[in-house]
Inverse folding.
């Protein structure tokens, strides 16, 4: 079942929210959850404000993770995918929450262009649990 973060039990943990015509970012201590709006084509130009917000929030953080909660249908340029992620040397994990077989297939294509650890999920709770646990392990093993 598709669930937006704003309708989830995770709301009390959200530290900040950024919203514009492209989508909404929900900031947690060490991860951000993005919900891109319906019909958007995400590329470097359209994602510029989102990239800036993420960079500003995690500028002093040694590592963080990104979860794409795909509650809406949108497209992303696979060629620019690596370029988008390249803006964040402190990005260590990438998770995608897919609610359809097509979204899962698209996520598997994106995975080929991703240079950080990448996982697919069927719900946002599992994605957040995995990411929080994995980031904790990575930070304590460094």
């Amino acid at each position: 079942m598709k669930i937006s973060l704003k309708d989830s039990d995770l709301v009390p943990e959200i530290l900040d929210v950024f919203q514009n015509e492209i989508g909404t970012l929900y900031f947690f201590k060490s991860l951000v959850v993005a919900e891109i709006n319906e019909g958007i084509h995400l590329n470097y130009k359209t994602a510029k404000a989102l990239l800036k917000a993420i960079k500003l929030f995690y500028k002093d953080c040694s590592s963080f993770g990104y979860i794409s909660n795909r509650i809406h249908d949108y497209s992303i340029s696979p060629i620019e995918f690596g370029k988008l992620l390249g803006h964040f040397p402190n990005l260590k994990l990438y998770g995608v929450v897919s609610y359809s077989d097509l979204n899962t297939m698209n996520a598997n294509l994106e995975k080929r262009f991703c240079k950080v650890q990448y996982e697919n999920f069927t719900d946002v709770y599992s994605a957040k649990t995995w990411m929080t646990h994995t980031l904790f392990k990575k930070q304590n093993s460094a």
Helices lie at 44-57, 78-85, 101-111, 124-141. The radius of gyration is 14 Å. The longest helix spans residues 124-141. The mean pLDDT is 89.
